Amino acid sequence: MSGKTRGPGRVGRRSVRRIRSGLRRHGLVLRPRAIRRLAQRHRLRFTSGNRLLVFSHGADGLEAMLEAITSARARIHLETYILRADTTGARFLDALTDRAAAGVAVRVLYDAVGSRGLAESALEPLRRAGGDVVAFNPLRRVWPDFAPRRRDHRKILVIDGKCAFTGGLNIGDEYAHGLGEGDDGWRDTHVRVDGPAVRDLEAVFLESWFRADGPDIHWEDVLTRAPRPVGDVRCAVLADGPSYPRRRMRDFLVGALAESADRVILETPYFAPGRRVLRALSAAAQRGADIDLLLAGRTDHPILRRAARAILPQLLERGIRVHEYERAMMHAKVGVFDGNWAFVGTSNLDQQSLEHSFEVNLILEGGDVVDQLLVAFAADREGSRRVDRDMLARRGFAERALDRASAWLLSLY
User: Fold this and answer.
1) Is 138 exposed, middle or buried (0-12, 13-18, 19+ CB in 10 A)?
2) CATH topology identical between 8-49+234-409 and 51-233
3) What is the DSSP string of 294-313?
């Protein structure tokens, strides 16, 4: 639909939703101004007719992925940062081996650093069954390929070119059960995608596969047809990585914060985004945007939590609300803007993710998927502790020094 439209901050969110609902009944779509501008600036290609199913717990998402693998009849493309040979990993490897033995083309790409400790012997049954398994950027490589911080942090599973999964879940026991006793499972956000966006996710997998020097694939045959429309969600696949001319996810996030009218929700386990994103957050808050930042209270990376504690006071002074999730390890990577569009994917809001890793995210609008994400956030906030300036001020001198040193090491000052 052409022409300028008023944002939610002017006519009210309920009015915009009524207008949007009426337009959809007539086959039209009112796209938020932020989406229009971001699509033009970042050359995002949106596809219509997608259906998304959101998984908010690790065990549920992993089981759905396993079920999809066992249903494969033509090909399975799996890309993951962490692949373990523990109980959960063995279930995946057994399912992949079974499908390869049945004649399904199975291709697995895992990151060599993320999956360190994965024994080659665990992969041999899959290889003997005809599956192809490739490690991304092994550290034994010699310069110029050697780049220890250049990692493949993407998580993509595509089944027969018809359905796909992406989000925060890696493959290992902790993602199914949590970090330990007293932990309420593993809190993550993973999505199943059906519809035309599946082809775009598979194209990102192929890009990674060829970058890792995987065996040749007749990619034209793989990408010839997109799945037919099956839902009412519009999606754009935003791939990012250090070989791209610009850091696309960081630039996207800065642009999204600049365009957001009145409400921003960000959930991330690791928060050390760098100066540009911090300035964008501060500017959005000063402009009057209502911002919630939800971080991990329990963490597997203490230095990142310390670094976040060092930079939070400047955000709190701007009126940004900060929460730390304490029921379990919170690993979701989600942003919701003005209650009507969002991103879900693999990018953490830290320098490693935004500068050095290959990532993939879905930008989405329409359907009820944004409402699902908002419901999940409301539940997360109930299980969180509010971080305020008084709480941070009670830290001792040694604690504050360690926090500032962590932030310095991560180049946040």
Assistant:
1) middle
2) yes
3) EEEEE-S-HHHHHHHHHHHH
Spatial CA neighbour of 349 closest among 293, 280, 268, 406: 268
Cβ-in-10-Å burial (0-12, 13-18, 19+) of 116 comes to: exposed
Length of the chain: 413
Cα 191 from Cα 144, distance rounded (Å): 36
* Rounded Cα–Cα distance for residues 382 and 376 (Å): 10
Token pair for residue 67? Answer: 């079920």
Give pLDDT < 50 ranges for the chain: 1-13, 16, 19-20, 23-30, 412-413
Q: What is the pLDDT of residues 15-71, one digit of tens each?
A: 545 544 554 444 444 456 667 777 777 678 899 999 999 999 999 999 999 999 999
Contact indicator for 370, 336 with CB cutoff of 8 Å: yes
The pTM for the full model equals 0.89
* CATH architecture assigned to 8-49+234-409: 2-Layer Sandwich (3.30)
At 98 the pLDDT is: 98
Alpha-carbon span 151 to 182, nearest angstrom: 32
Which residues face 145 on adjacent strands? none
Residues sharing a CB contact under 8 Å with residue 401, sequence separation 6 or more, in sequence order: none
Fold (topology level) of 51-233 = Endonuclease; Chain A (3.30.870)
Cα 268 versus chain centre, distance:
9
Show Cβ contacts of residue 216 under 8 Å, excluding neighbours closer than 6 positions.
none
Q: Sketch the domain layout of the chain as residue ranges.
A: 8-49+234-409, 51-233
Strand 357-366 and strand 341-345: the pairing is antiparallel
Q: Is 161 exposed, middle or buried (0-12, 13-18, 19+ CB in 10 A)?
A: buried
Residues 96, 78 contacting (CB under 8 angstroms): yes
Which positions are catalytic? 153, 155, 160, 331, 333, 338
| Tens of pLDDT, residues 59-69 | 999 999 999 99
